[in-house]
Design goal:
Radius of gyration: 19 Å
CATH topology of the largest domain: Rossmann fold
Distance between the termini: 47 Å
Strand order of the largest sheet: 10-9-8-11-12-14-13
Largest sheet: 7 strands, mixed
CATH class of the largest domain: Alpha Beta
Shape: globular
Structural class: alpha/beta
Order of helices and strands: EHEEHEHEEEHEHEHEEHEHEE
């Protein structure tokens, strides 16, 4: 399968940069690189949708951003190229998220192994790192946990390391679904239930803690389904949205019977905790 390289002008701010990467990722782009020309984004030929990219650039938030070129790349192991620049992420000096090709470091309480494969959910992004921060401050011992939009399953894996009992990881992306099995095995865990599907796959399950690192629109659309699966007193952690979206998240959470507890914000990305 051929790989296409899209070159965009340099984003005008960190917020615009992160939003572009996030939204392109949702369209099927799977790796990104900054260089002197601007931001380069890569996708396989079968996921090419130039009309969608053009429509994206018409959004007000991407004012001043332009697509400079689309080129077909020569055959190469792009994942290997990307991995060469991938560095471990340390959260609160307690949790380290690394790739299999990094040396283990037992000085960290939690040294998680994630096969990145150009995926989100490696803790390199603020949303994942902030939820991890909140998780490290929460009692997971013996709790039943649901990880919605689980991606690499890094949050579900940490939940098990923190002592969670039944843990379910759900994602509607088939690649993420397969990658989750790899990562669960790499961490020596054999009892995370990995499910391919959307919020309807929750079924009649009930949980003490829900993790939902997705995006604003899906959170607002499916929040009532998450809440239906929460036991009285359960915690839910949301992320994947911006500071300006927090009001909308709080409003919908209140409508669904949740009580706001706290939130963290970094580089305009937010993670928030609510209680039922």
């Amino acid at each position: 399968m051929k790989t296409l390289e899209y070159t965009f002008t340099t984003p005008t701010s960190d917020i615009q940069h992160d939003m572009l990467i996030t939204m392109l990722g949702e369209m099927g782009f799977d790796s990104f690189m900054d260089d002197d020309l601007g931001l380069k984004a890569y996708c396989s030929e079968d996921r090419r949708d130039d009309a969608a990219v053009e429509e994206l650039l018409l959004m007000d938030v991407f004012s001043g951003l332009h697509l400079l070129a689309v080129e077909e790349m020569p055959d190469k192991d792009w994942n290997e190229v990307w991995e060469a620049s991938y560095q471990p992420v340390v959260v609160n000096e307690r949790c380290r998220v690394r790739a299999p090709f990094h040396t283990p470091d037992p000085s960290y309480e939690f040294d998680l192994v994630i096969e990145p494969k150009m995926s989100f959910g490696t803790a390199n992004h603020e949303t994942t790192a902030q939820i991890i921060t909140m998780m490290l401050e929460t009692d997971f011992q013996g709790k039943d946990v649901l990880d919605m939009g689980s991606g690499t399953a890094v949050l579900a894996i940490l939940a098990k390391k923190l002592g969670a009992a039944r843990t379910v990881a759900i994602d509607n992306d088939e690649w993420a679904y397969r990658n989750a099995f790899t990562n669960v095995a790499l961490n020596g865990i054999d009892d995370i239930q990995i499910v391919l599907g959307d919020a309807s796959a929750i079924g009649d399950g009930s949980f003490d803690i829900v993790l939902a690192n997705i995006n604003r629109n899906i959170l607002l659309r499916d929040m009532h389904l998450y809440v239906d699966a929460m036991r009285p007193g359960a915690h839910i952690f949301f992320s994947g949205f911006y500071t300006e979206d927090l009001g909308s998240i709080q409003e919908e959470a209140s409508r669904c019977g949740l009580r706001y507890a706290r939130h963290l914000a970094r580089n305009n990305w937010v993670a928030a905790e609510f209680l039922k």
